[in-house]
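Below: protein 1.
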Amino acid sequence: MKEYDSPHKIILYPFVTEKTMNYMEKENKLEFIVDLKSNKIQIAEAIEELFDAKVESVNTRIDKNGKRATVKFSSEYSAEEIGMRIGVF
């Protein structure tokens, strides 16, 4: 398994569409394009380190854009606030 020396090597960039904006508002989720070889545990740890927020779950899938991770934050953290910090709006 590949080891990473930085969370920035796992989390490549946020993936923003109208659908992901709805996830953020209604389900407290953000979506990211991540390294193809990363696993859910590595993704969760990288998100927690980068954004200082607790991750509740990570779902991944691979499509034409690469590997996408949908990250659900625990209720005490706001995906909208995190989205504003990273410039999603």
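Below: protein 2.
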Amino acid sequence: MIKDVLKDAEERMKGALSVLEDDLIGMRTGRASTGLVEKLNVEYYGTDTPLFQLATISVPEPQLIAIRPFDKTSLKTIEKAIQASDLGLTPNNDGTVIRLNIPPLTQERRRDLQKMVSRRVEEARVAVRNIRRSAIDDLREFEREKMISEDDGKRGQDDVQKLTDRYIEKVEEAGKRKEAEIMEV
């Protein structure tokens, strides 16, 4: 029973960490990354479709993203989706490839991005702590219903805390990596 609670808590903490990492990948830094645009939704024949399903996305140069649609007729809709997004990038279309030049970040924009990273990291920390609280509540409930002993409950809570500490550390590391990437000139 305790193992099930721990396993469930760990799965949920992994999920919180992967959501954070996906969020951070989509954040713009001074360097081009396919993660900026691959999850961008494009309306394709009436359906919102992620860009990576409609085109080959590559980074031929450190400051350039190239998007080559599988279907040439989707060029205009991809271009519109990029312009409508909050990326702040202007697509250049030559009829077969859309090129996105990634301008260097200003110091002010870097600070704003750092604040955004801090906010996302804090949200992930809160999510991990909420999972911990839920797991500890489950263990206390098992104790109350005499399904586990008090000692087992205490050991289980200690294990949940160790798991929480490990995932909080991973969240912190992900945030620090992204902040370093943002501040890199």
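The chain has a mean pLDDT of 87.
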